[in-house]
Amino acid sequence: MSSIKANLVPGPLPASLQLTSDGKLKHFLTTEGLSKELLTEILDRAEQFVTLPSKAQNKFPLLRGKTVMNLFFENSTRTRITFELAAQRLSADIVNLDIRSSSASKGESLLDTIRNLEAMNCDVFVVRHHHSSAPHFIARYCAPHISVLNAGDGYHAHPTQAMLDMLTIRQHKPDFSALTVAITGDIRHSRVARSQIHALNTLGAKEIRLIAPGTLMPAGIEQMNVKVFSSLDEGLRDADVVVMLRLQKERMQGAMLPSEKEYFSLYGLTEKRLKLAKPDAIVMHPGPVNRGVEIESSVADGPQSVIMQQVTNGIAVRMAVMSMVVDSQSKGQG
Amino acid sequence: MTQLLIKQARVVDPASDLNKVCDVLVTDGKVAQIDAEITATDGMSVLDATGKWMLPGLVDLGAYVRNQERVATVESESIAAANAGITRLCCMPESAKITDTTAEVTLIQEKASHSGKVWFEVVGSLTAGLGGEQLSNMAGLKKAGCVAVSQGHHEFESLDIMRKAMEYAQTCGIKLFIQPLEHGLAGKGCVHDGAIATRVGLPGIPVAAETVALSQILLMAEQTKVDVHFCRLSSAAGADMIRQAKARGLSVTADVAAHQLHLSEQDIVDYNPLCHTLPPLRSEADRDALRQAVREGVIDAICSDHQPHDIDAKLAPFQESSPGISALESLLPLTMKLVDEGALTLQEAITSVTSNAADIINRPHGRLSVGSDADFLIYDPLLQWIFDPAAMYSHGKNSPFEGWEFNGKLLRTYVKGQRVDHHSNDEALT
């Protein structure tokens, strides 16, 4: 192992490393820097998986003989399960590894963990990590035959979540260039919001609005081609898509917010407030929903809510990117 | 009597306003004579330095030399300093090398004198064990030769303890080296809090972490009358506060790390852990303001802020990597590059790494005039080369300057008239 490590040097982790030399998706790490064509290809492919029946007996053979390993350095049940189902429906073998309870907690470095796992002959790593750029790091230093899918890193990116949101939006409102999208909540700590912003910008959304109190709005975010609002009422006005982010309970510590009650009074989405948006606006939430904190139950379950559709689309988008990165592997080897 | 005659070098000594081609005679480790022409006599070694520059040896105000075999040691880093043109190096207190006793200080001085041959100055610990709670034996540290005392990167337990440390340092007549960082505002941040941090999703350290600390220290320094030197400024606002303090007549000085004058937050867009520093690389506007402050003399000195690491400490996702650059060997190139880029005059650049730095630690060095120690460099102003971290003498190879091109290169380093470097570029000196 030391001889392998001797050849490793620290350095930059450019976003370009997610593409092969001929422009195919090799890793899916961030929506930033990917072309409109490539994002559209992901959506088109996912749409096929949505429309085709996906019962257990109708598995697709696209990943037969491949092994997908879920590496979760941070806990998540829902995201992990959707990746697991996506892999199963593509006929892959799937292994789940909860790293928190194994090597990382024994002080092993990330690099050593990866060295050990890649020796198990996997084809795809699905990585969730509490530190931004960890999936980039793994993609940069793991064996070249492995593809890495980012299942959420720090505050940085959650690209499959953003793409399932794009798919959901497109199913209701096919023309991105006509859309005003309002994203409300803990923008500062949200990798979902960042990935959505990049994807919406690339897909040509007309206007992206971010709505949050000062403590949850990160410095300089307006440089990402967004409009910043501190008032929910103003931000919602005439929006076509309303995205509510989950408020983590720990934000009450560290003086980010005084209380859930006050947050709801200022930033909770109620039926009354939703009327400020366009009448046909859709309401989205990456889940799990804190009812009565960021959204009223009657809205979460109401006619404009597409939250359950997002969950279904999640599996399709993950199938799409898994099949695309495995495609790039076989083409790369051939 | 040993004599060395340097012929026809352009001697640049801003402290004596000297900048012309002449001959310099070194006798028994001291500069004995500087004249337009000195005739060689029997027994003199002669070095023809036509077309080369003779500069005072560099005085580096801030290096962490570690004390761990697998990372770096006093021995390894003093050799690196010799090959970097640094003839006098201030080593900062750190957890691996807590210099809170006179014995520890003496040990460093002895180790250094036997290996790299450059002068090692020790900055002692301001509090016992750097714990921030109990004062160190500052009078003893001063007697052992410490040029200053510092908390390094470590926190004070409270403002009250900081104030008492200042009062006691004033009593002992020893200078304080303080890196202004309000830990409560820095939190778990690892990059400059701004648009880039937001984009890459890394927790930020706001400029206020520097300015709030500066304002507290400045107010208390004014009251306690202690001499304070501020280490490693990173922001335009911080430089402004020093400018105002000096205008008010406070006895303060400041330095900046050379990399802070070249890199910015733009360099962490790709999560390059080699650009993970503390204080963080800030905006391009901050970088430009720091350059301006050096030019105006608001920031007195440029230093290396040398922090060698073993490679594993940098082979990790950004947040998990250790901050710091192995920087002894980029100090002179980066400083001279500021002249190339028109940010500083040659005099301003040399002053900031020689006599100004020596003045801060109250040493008569960083100068080339008759009677001064013959600590000097021979520098080729036209030799182009490309920086290669793997070729550095420091045990730490963590430099982000791989591939940078420089117009001008150090050829030789002399301490007390003796050559101490290992450069094998004699073809450039014929």
UniProtKB/TrEMBL annotation, chain B:
Stored CDD domains: DHOase_IIa
Keyword presence, Transport: no
Gene Ontology cellular component list: cytoplasm
E.C. number: 3.5.2.3
GO terms (BP aspect): purine nucleobase catabolic process; pyrimidine nucleotide biosynthetic process
PANTHER family, per database record: ALLANTOINASE
MF GO annotations: allantoinase activity; dihydroorotase activity; metal ion binding
Protein name: Dihydroorotase
Domain Amidohydrolase-related, first and last residues per copy: 219-420
Broadest EC class assigned to this enzyme: hydrolase
Pfam families: Amidohydro_1 (PF01979)
Taxonomic lineage: Bacteria, Pseudomonadati, Pseudomonadota, Gammaproteobacteria, Thiotrichales
Organism: Leucothrix pacifica
Keywords: Hydrolase, Pyrimidine biosynthesis
